[in-house]
Write a structure and sequence with these properties.
Blueprint (H helix, E strand, L loop, with lengths): L9 H9 L19 E9 L11 E7 L2 E3 L4 E4 L7 E6 L2 E2 L6 E2 L2 E10 L4 E4 L8 E3 L3 E8 L8 E9 L2
Antiparallel strand pairs: 1-12, 2-11, 3-10, 3-12, 4-9, 4-12, 5-8, 5-11, 6-7
Length: 163
Amino acid sequence: MATAIDYKSEQATKIYNNEPGGAKANTPLPPDDFYGKVRVFRGYFKNTTGGDIAANKVISITKLPAGRILPNSILYHTALGSGVTLDVGYNDHKNNVNGTAIAADIDAILDGADVAAAGSKTVSATNIQGITLNGQAEITAKVLGAVMPANAELSFVFFVVVD
């Protein structure tokens, strides 16, 4: 005898509704939830300006295609010094489907990440579901709290479901 199910996850509900006879039979399931391919994107920045980068300056890291940034995406960083934090987000871009403008969200990926000592941060610190990009977006990092010293490095590994 099968065990009675009391609750279903959002994903389980989508699967059950998509089965023959289900509410949405034969409806394609979204690739960021089911059977999607994960692509790896890298972004790297080294402060080679010959000096410090002032607080509240924004750095372009890379561009990512439409898709979902998975929560195991990682920022690796050198020690940026006492009081330095980092916001990571995306710049203004357009929706791939309907062309509408999507406003920048400077801290959508990481918000106030402590980067004083060398280490790493995962996107899950901000959002356990990941971050959905509805169009190609420029990924940015904003230096907060103090200056980013010369030769400081940021290295990103983004895992993105794109199809």
